[in-house]
Protein backbone atom coordinates (compact mmCIF):
# COMPACT_ATOMS: atom_id res chain seq x y z
CA UNK A 1 0.00 0.00 0.00
CA UNK A 2 1.15 3.49 -0.86
CA UNK A 3 0.71 4.73 2.72
CA UNK A 4 3.17 2.18 4.14
CA UNK A 5 5.63 2.88 1.34
CA UNK A 6 5.49 6.60 2.07
CA UNK A 7 5.96 5.98 5.79
CA UNK A 8 8.97 3.76 5.15
CA UNK A 9 10.51 6.32 2.81
CA UNK A 10 9.92 9.16 5.24
CA UNK A 11 11.72 7.18 7.96
CA UNK A 12 14.55 6.40 5.55
CA UNK A 13 15.14 10.05 4.64
CA UNK A 14 14.58 11.47 8.14
CA UNK A 15 18.28 11.99 8.97
CA UNK A 16 18.93 13.73 5.64
CA UNK A 17 15.93 16.01 6.07
CA UNK A 18 17.16 17.00 9.54
CA UNK A 19 20.65 17.63 8.13
CA UNK A 20 19.17 19.83 5.37
CA UNK A 21 17.11 21.74 7.91
CA UNK A 22 20.16 22.30 10.11
CA UNK A 23 22.17 23.54 7.14
CA UNK A 24 19.44 26.00 6.19
CA UNK A 25 18.92 27.02 9.81
CA UNK A 26 22.57 27.91 10.28
CA UNK A 27 22.67 29.83 6.97
CA UNK A 28 19.55 32.03 7.08
CA UNK A 29 19.00 34.79 4.51
CA UNK A 30 16.63 37.73 4.57
CA UNK A 31 13.58 38.17 2.33
CA UNK A 32 14.47 38.70 -1.37
CA UNK A 33 18.09 37.78 -0.59
CA UNK A 34 17.75 33.98 -0.48
CA UNK A 35 20.74 33.48 -2.80
CA UNK A 36 22.59 30.60 -1.12
CA UNK A 37 19.31 29.03 -0.06
CA UNK A 38 18.18 29.07 -3.67
CA UNK A 39 21.42 27.41 -4.81
CA UNK A 40 21.04 24.80 -2.06
CA UNK A 41 17.48 23.97 -3.17
CA UNK A 42 18.54 23.90 -6.83
CA UNK A 43 21.32 21.40 -6.05
CA UNK A 44 18.95 19.15 -4.14
CA UNK A 45 16.44 19.22 -7.01
CA UNK A 46 19.24 18.33 -9.43
CA UNK A 47 20.24 15.40 -7.21
CA UNK A 48 16.67 14.16 -7.57
CA UNK A 49 16.94 14.51 -11.34
CA UNK A 50 14.32 17.26 -11.39
CA UNK A 51 14.42 20.16 -13.80
CA UNK A 52 13.61 23.51 -12.28
CA UNK A 53 13.25 27.07 -13.36
CA UNK A 54 13.78 30.26 -11.44
CA UNK A 55 11.10 32.82 -10.63
CA UNK A 56 11.03 36.03 -8.61
CA UNK A 57 14.89 36.01 -8.70
CA UNK A 58 15.50 33.46 -5.96
CA UNK A 59 12.36 31.31 -6.23
CA UNK A 60 12.31 27.87 -7.88
CA UNK A 61 9.62 25.78 -9.51
CA UNK A 62 9.90 22.11 -10.47
CA UNK A 63 7.51 19.42 -11.66
CA UNK A 64 7.25 15.77 -10.65
CA UNK A 65 5.17 13.78 -13.09
CA UNK A 66 3.65 10.47 -12.11
CA UNK A 67 4.21 7.73 -14.70
CA UNK A 68 0.50 6.95 -15.02
CA UNK A 69 -1.47 9.20 -17.39
CA UNK A 70 -3.50 12.09 -15.91
CA UNK A 71 -4.10 15.80 -16.46
CA UNK A 72 -4.46 16.50 -12.76
CA UNK A 73 -2.02 18.99 -11.25
CA UNK A 74 -1.52 20.11 -7.68
CA UNK A 75 1.05 22.48 -6.19
CA UNK A 76 3.03 22.23 -2.95
CA UNK A 77 4.56 25.41 -1.60
CA UNK A 78 7.42 26.21 0.78
CA UNK A 79 8.82 29.62 1.72
CA UNK A 80 12.58 30.14 2.15
CA UNK A 81 13.27 33.47 3.88
CA UNK A 82 14.46 34.27 7.42
CA UNK A 83 13.92 37.22 9.78
CA UNK A 84 16.10 40.07 11.08
CA UNK A 85 16.41 38.52 14.56
CA UNK A 86 19.56 37.47 16.45
CA UNK A 87 19.27 33.84 17.50
CA UNK A 88 19.49 33.24 21.25
CA UNK A 89 19.48 29.43 21.11
CA UNK A 90 22.70 27.66 21.99
CA UNK A 91 22.44 24.78 19.52
CA UNK A 92 24.96 23.20 17.12
CA UNK A 93 22.95 24.50 14.16
CA UNK A 94 22.72 28.08 15.50
CA UNK A 95 22.54 30.85 12.89
CA UNK A 96 25.98 31.75 11.55
CA UNK A 97 24.62 34.88 9.95
CA UNK A 98 24.48 37.22 12.94
CA UNK A 99 21.30 39.26 13.10
CA UNK A 100 19.42 36.89 10.80
CA UNK A 101 17.45 33.88 11.99
CA UNK A 102 15.00 31.29 10.72
CA UNK A 103 12.58 32.28 13.48
CA UNK A 104 9.45 31.46 11.49
CA UNK A 105 10.41 27.91 10.52
CA UNK A 106 10.79 28.53 6.79
CA UNK A 107 13.94 26.36 6.96
CA UNK A 108 11.59 23.60 8.13
CA UNK A 109 9.13 24.18 5.28
CA UNK A 110 11.89 24.15 2.66
CA UNK A 111 13.72 21.06 3.94
CA UNK A 112 10.42 19.28 4.43
CA UNK A 113 9.28 19.98 0.87
CA UNK A 114 12.64 18.72 -0.42
CA UNK A 115 11.96 15.53 1.55
CA UNK A 116 8.46 15.28 0.10
CA UNK A 117 9.94 15.74 -3.38
CA UNK A 118 12.33 12.85 -2.73
CA UNK A 119 9.51 10.56 -1.62
CA UNK A 120 7.35 11.50 -4.62
CA UNK A 121 10.25 11.01 -7.02
CA UNK A 122 10.86 7.50 -5.69
CA UNK A 123 7.17 6.64 -6.04
CA UNK A 124 6.70 8.13 -9.53
CA UNK A 125 5.82 4.79 -11.09
CA UNK A 126 2.89 4.40 -8.73
CA UNK A 127 0.79 7.51 -9.20
CA UNK A 128 -0.97 9.54 -11.84
CA UNK A 129 -0.82 13.33 -12.05
CA UNK A 130 1.67 16.16 -11.80
CA UNK A 131 3.03 17.78 -8.66
CA UNK A 132 4.36 21.31 -8.92
CA UNK A 133 6.93 22.21 -6.28
CA UNK A 134 7.03 25.90 -5.38
CA UNK A 135 9.97 27.27 -3.38
CA UNK A 136 9.21 30.96 -2.95
CA UNK A 137 11.18 33.88 -1.54
CA UNK A 138 10.14 36.61 0.85
CA UNK A 139 7.06 35.52 2.74
CA UNK A 140 8.00 37.96 5.49
CA UNK A 141 8.25 41.13 3.45
CA UNK A 142 5.78 43.12 1.37
CA UNK A 143 4.72 42.71 -1.37
CA UNK A 144 5.37 39.01 -0.55
CA UNK A 145 7.18 36.49 -2.72
CA UNK A 146 3.89 34.71 -3.44
CA UNK A 147 2.38 37.74 -5.18
CA UNK A 148 5.45 38.06 -7.41
CA UNK A 149 5.55 34.34 -8.25
CA UNK A 150 1.85 34.47 -9.19
CA UNK A 151 2.42 37.53 -11.39
CA UNK A 152 5.26 35.66 -13.07
CA UNK A 153 2.93 32.76 -13.78
CA UNK A 154 3.62 30.15 -11.10
CA UNK A 155 -0.04 29.11 -11.18
CA UNK A 156 -0.04 28.60 -14.98
CA UNK A 157 1.49 26.03 -17.35
CA UNK A 158 0.43 23.74 -15.88
CA UNK A 159 -2.34 25.24 -13.79
CA UNK A 160 -2.77 23.47 -10.42
CA UNK A 161 -6.28 22.56 -9.32
CA UNK A 162 -5.17 22.88 -5.72
CA UNK A 163 -2.32 24.45 -3.74
CA UNK A 164 -1.05 23.16 -0.39
CA UNK A 165 1.20 24.80 2.16
CA UNK A 166 2.26 23.84 5.66
CA UNK A 167 3.55 26.05 8.45
CA UNK A 168 5.17 25.23 11.77
CA UNK A 169 3.03 25.77 14.87
CA UNK A 170 4.75 25.83 18.29
CA UNK A 171 1.38 25.59 20.05
CA UNK A 172 0.82 22.06 18.69
CA UNK A 173 2.88 19.03 19.79
CA UNK A 174 5.23 17.49 17.24
CA UNK A 175 3.48 14.52 15.65
CA UNK A 176 0.22 16.38 15.23
CA UNK A 177 -1.19 18.75 12.60
CA UNK A 178 -4.03 21.29 12.55
CA UNK A 179 -6.63 22.28 9.95
CA UNK A 180 -9.26 24.95 9.57
CA UNK A 181 -11.69 25.06 6.67
CA UNK A 182 -12.82 28.48 5.44
CA UNK A 183 -11.38 31.82 6.51
CA UNK A 184 -8.25 31.24 8.54
CA UNK A 185 -5.82 34.18 8.57
CA UNK A 186 -6.27 37.94 8.31
CA UNK A 187 -5.52 40.61 5.75
CA UNK A 188 -2.99 43.02 7.22
CA UNK A 189 -2.59 46.68 6.39
CA UNK A 190 -0.07 49.03 7.91
CA UNK A 191 -1.27 52.47 8.96
CA UNK A 192 1.00 55.51 9.05
CA UNK A 193 -0.65 58.65 10.41
CA UNK A 194 0.69 62.15 11.00
CA UNK A 195 -1.54 64.51 12.97
CA UNK A 196 -0.51 68.09 12.44
CA UNK A 197 -1.26 71.07 14.69
CA UNK A 198 0.75 74.09 15.75
CA UNK A 199 3.07 73.69 18.69
CA UNK A 200 3.99 76.17 21.35
CA UNK A 201 4.17 76.81 25.10
CA UNK A 202 2.15 74.37 27.17
CA UNK A 203 0.86 77.31 29.23
CA UNK A 204 -0.81 78.93 26.23
CA UNK A 205 -3.05 76.33 24.59
CA UNK A 206 -5.34 79.03 23.20
CA UNK A 207 -2.54 80.15 20.88
CA UNK A 208 -1.69 76.66 19.66
CA UNK A 209 -3.42 73.79 17.91
CA UNK A 210 -2.68 70.80 20.09
CA UNK A 211 -2.05 67.68 17.97
CA UNK A 212 -1.83 65.53 21.13
CA UNK A 213 -5.46 66.18 22.05
CA UNK A 214 -6.50 65.71 18.40
CA UNK A 215 -4.67 62.37 18.40
CA UNK A 216 -6.39 61.30 21.62
CA UNK A 217 -9.77 61.86 19.94
CA UNK A 218 -8.71 60.12 16.75
CA UNK A 219 -7.38 57.05 18.54
CA UNK A 220 -10.59 56.63 20.53
CA UNK A 221 -12.92 57.40 17.64
CA UNK A 222 -11.19 55.00 15.22
CA UNK A 223 -12.04 52.07 17.49
CA UNK A 224 -15.66 52.72 16.52
CA UNK A 225 -14.85 51.65 12.98
CA UNK A 226 -14.39 48.19 14.47
CA UNK A 227 -17.10 48.30 17.16
CA UNK A 228 -19.87 50.12 15.25
CA UNK A 229 -19.31 49.62 11.52
CA UNK A 230 -17.77 46.15 11.23
CA UNK A 231 -20.05 43.13 11.04
CA UNK A 232 -19.75 41.52 14.49
CA UNK A 233 -19.76 38.09 12.83
CA UNK A 234 -16.54 38.88 10.98
CA UNK A 235 -13.42 39.72 13.03
CA UNK A 236 -11.56 43.00 12.68
CA UNK A 237 -8.62 44.33 14.67
CA UNK A 238 -7.28 47.86 14.83
CA UNK A 239 -4.19 48.47 16.99
CA UNK A 240 -1.81 51.41 17.20
CA UNK A 241 1.52 50.38 18.70
CA UNK A 242 3.43 53.57 18.04
CA UNK A 243 2.36 57.05 19.16
CA UNK A 244 5.06 59.72 19.20
CA UNK A 245 4.34 63.21 20.51
CA UNK A 246 7.80 64.52 21.07
CA UNK A 247 7.00 67.62 23.14
CA UNK A 248 7.73 68.13 26.82
CA UNK A 249 5.83 68.83 30.05
CA UNK A 250 5.55 72.43 28.93
CA UNK A 251 5.89 72.08 25.15
CA UNK A 252 3.04 71.27 22.81
CA UNK A 253 4.61 69.63 19.72
CA UNK A 254 3.81 70.53 16.12
CA UNK A 255 2.76 67.03 15.21
CA UNK A 256 2.10 63.53 16.45
CA UNK A 257 3.10 60.41 14.54
CA UNK A 258 1.20 57.11 14.75
CA UNK A 259 1.71 53.62 13.39
CA UNK A 260 -0.83 50.87 13.54
CA UNK A 261 -2.25 47.77 11.96
CA UNK A 262 -5.68 46.92 10.59
CA UNK A 263 -6.66 43.27 10.11
CA UNK A 264 -9.79 41.61 8.90
CA UNK A 265 -11.18 38.65 6.95
CA UNK A 266 -13.38 40.32 4.33
CA UNK A 267 -12.04 42.16 1.27
CA UNK A 268 -15.14 44.32 0.76
CA UNK A 269 -15.16 45.43 4.38
CA UNK A 270 -11.41 45.99 4.23
CA UNK A 271 -11.91 48.60 1.48
CA UNK A 272 -14.79 50.27 3.33
CA UNK A 273 -12.85 50.33 6.60
CA UNK A 274 -9.91 52.05 4.90
CA UNK A 275 -12.20 54.84 3.68
CA UNK A 276 -13.98 55.20 7.02
CA UNK A 277 -10.74 55.37 9.06
CA UNK A 278 -9.24 57.96 6.76
CA UNK A 279 -12.39 60.09 6.65
CA UNK A 280 -12.92 59.93 10.40
CA UNK A 281 -9.32 60.85 11.27
CA UNK A 282 -9.18 63.68 8.74
CA UNK A 283 -12.59 64.99 9.83
CA UNK A 284 -11.69 65.04 13.52
CA UNK A 285 -8.36 66.74 12.88
CA UNK A 286 -9.98 69.36 10.68
CA UNK A 287 -12.82 70.06 13.13
CA UNK A 288 -10.21 70.76 15.81
CA UNK A 289 -8.19 73.10 13.62
CA UNK A 290 -5.45 70.70 12.59
CA UNK A 291 -4.92 68.26 9.75
CA UNK A 292 -4.13 64.61 9.29
CA UNK A 293 -2.20 62.61 6.73
CA UNK A 294 -3.49 59.06 6.78
CA UNK A 295 -1.44 56.59 4.73
CA UNK A 296 -2.37 52.93 4.37
CA UNK A 297 0.19 50.43 3.12
CA UNK A 298 -1.72 47.42 1.87
CA UNK A 299 -0.49 44.07 3.06
CA UNK A 300 -1.56 40.51 2.22
CA UNK A 301 -5.20 39.59 1.65
CA UNK A 302 -6.99 37.21 4.03
CA UNK A 303 -6.24 33.51 3.74
CA UNK A 304 -9.10 31.15 2.97
CA UNK A 305 -8.90 27.39 3.01
CA UNK A 306 -11.30 26.05 0.40
CA UNK A 307 -13.98 24.11 2.32
CA UNK A 308 -14.24 20.91 0.26
CA UNK A 309 -10.52 20.62 -0.40
CA UNK A 310 -9.70 21.19 3.27
CA UNK A 311 -12.28 18.66 4.43
CA UNK A 312 -10.85 16.07 2.02
CA UNK A 313 -7.25 16.88 3.00
CA UNK A 314 -8.12 16.65 6.67
CA UNK A 315 -9.54 13.20 5.96
CA UNK A 316 -6.29 12.11 4.27
CA UNK A 317 -4.34 13.45 7.26
CA UNK A 318 -6.52 11.43 9.66
CA UNK A 319 -5.95 8.41 7.51
CA UNK A 320 -2.18 8.95 7.53
CA UNK A 321 -1.66 10.06 11.16
CA UNK A 322 -4.70 8.75 13.02
CA UNK A 323 -7.68 10.88 14.08
CA UNK A 324 -6.15 11.73 17.45
CA UNK A 325 -3.26 13.54 15.74
CA UNK A 326 -5.35 15.90 13.62
CA UNK A 327 -6.64 19.00 15.41
CA UNK A 328 -8.98 21.90 14.66
CA UNK A 329 -7.45 25.34 14.37
CA UNK A 330 -8.94 28.63 15.48
CA UNK A 331 -8.89 31.80 13.35
CA UNK A 332 -5.43 33.39 13.57
CA UNK A 333 -5.31 37.18 13.01
CA UNK A 334 -1.72 37.15 11.73
CA UNK A 335 -1.04 37.39 7.99
CA UNK A 336 0.67 35.03 5.56
CA UNK A 337 1.38 35.54 1.88
CA UNK A 338 0.10 32.03 1.11
CA UNK A 339 -3.18 34.02 1.12
CA UNK A 340 -2.38 35.09 -2.48
CA UNK A 341 -2.48 31.46 -3.64
CA UNK A 342 -5.69 30.95 -1.68
CA UNK A 343 -7.30 33.90 -3.47
CA UNK A 344 -6.23 32.56 -6.87
CA UNK A 345 -6.82 28.79 -6.56
CA UNK A 346 -8.46 26.26 -4.25
CA UNK A 347 -5.98 26.03 -1.39
CA UNK A 348 -5.28 24.38 1.93
CA UNK A 349 -2.80 25.81 4.42
CA UNK A 350 -2.33 23.61 7.46
CA UNK A 351 -0.19 23.63 10.57
CA UNK A 352 2.60 21.28 11.49
CA UNK A 353 3.02 20.78 15.24
CA UNK A 354 6.61 21.45 16.38
CA UNK A 355 6.24 21.76 20.17
CA UNK A 356 8.01 19.61 22.74
CA UNK A 357 7.45 20.94 26.24
CA UNK A 358 9.67 18.30 27.87
CA UNK A 359 12.63 19.69 25.92
CA UNK A 360 11.58 23.32 26.51
CA UNK A 361 10.65 23.84 22.86
CA UNK A 362 7.70 26.18 23.31
CA UNK A 363 8.81 29.62 22.05
CA UNK A 364 6.59 31.46 19.63
CA UNK A 365 7.60 32.10 16.03
CA UNK A 366 9.38 35.46 15.47
CA UNK A 367 11.23 35.23 18.81
CA UNK A 368 15.03 34.76 19.35
CA UNK A 369 14.43 31.46 21.19
CA UNK A 370 12.16 29.87 18.59
CA UNK A 371 13.13 26.29 17.71
CA UNK A 372 11.36 23.12 16.68
CA UNK A 373 11.18 19.50 17.77
CA UNK A 374 12.78 17.86 14.75
CA UNK A 375 10.71 14.72 15.28
CA UNK A 376 8.08 16.72 13.38
CA UNK A 377 9.94 15.68 10.19
CA UNK A 378 8.87 12.11 10.86
CA UNK A 379 5.42 13.13 9.64
CA UNK A 380 5.83 16.34 7.65
CA UNK A 381 7.47 14.95 4.51
CA UNK A 382 5.33 11.83 4.24
CA UNK A 383 2.04 13.51 5.07
CA UNK A 384 2.48 16.05 2.29
CA UNK A 385 3.45 13.32 -0.17
CA UNK A 386 0.41 11.25 0.85
CA UNK A 387 -2.12 14.05 0.57
CA UNK A 388 -0.64 15.14 -2.75
CA UNK A 389 -0.98 11.64 -4.22
CA UNK A 390 -4.48 11.27 -2.80
CA UNK A 391 -5.61 14.66 -4.03
CA UNK A 392 -4.42 13.76 -7.52
CA UNK A 393 -7.06 11.04 -7.48
CA UNK A 394 -4.88 8.00 -6.78
ZN1 LIG B 1 6.69 34.72 10.00
ZN1 LIG C 1 6.15 31.99 8.38
UniProtKB/TrEMBL annotation:
<dbReference type="Pfam" id="PF07687">
    <property type="entry name" value="M20_dimer"/>
</dbReference>
<protein>
    <submittedName>
        <fullName>Amidohydrolase</fullName>
        <ecNumber>3.5.1.-</ecNumber>
    </submittedName>
</protein>
<keyword id="KW-0378">Hydrolase</keyword>
<dbReference type="InterPro" id="IPR011650">
    <property type="entry name" value="Peptidase_M20_dimer"/>
</dbReference>
<dbReference type="InterPro" id="IPR036264">
    <property type="entry name" value="Bact_exopeptidase_dim_dom"/>
</dbReference>
<dbReference type="InterPro" id="IPR002933">
    <property type="entry name" value="Peptidase_M20"/>
</dbReference>
<dbReference type="InterPro" id="IPR017439">
    <property type="entry name" value="Amidohydrolase"/>
</dbReference>
<feature type="domain" description="Peptidase M20 dimerisation">
    <location>
        <begin position="192"/>
        <end position="283"/>
    </location>
</feature>
<dbReference type="GO" id="GO:0016787">
    <property type="term" value="F:hydrolase activity"/>
</dbReference>
<dbReference type="Pfam" id="PF01546">
    <property type="entry name" value="Peptidase_M20"/>
</dbReference>
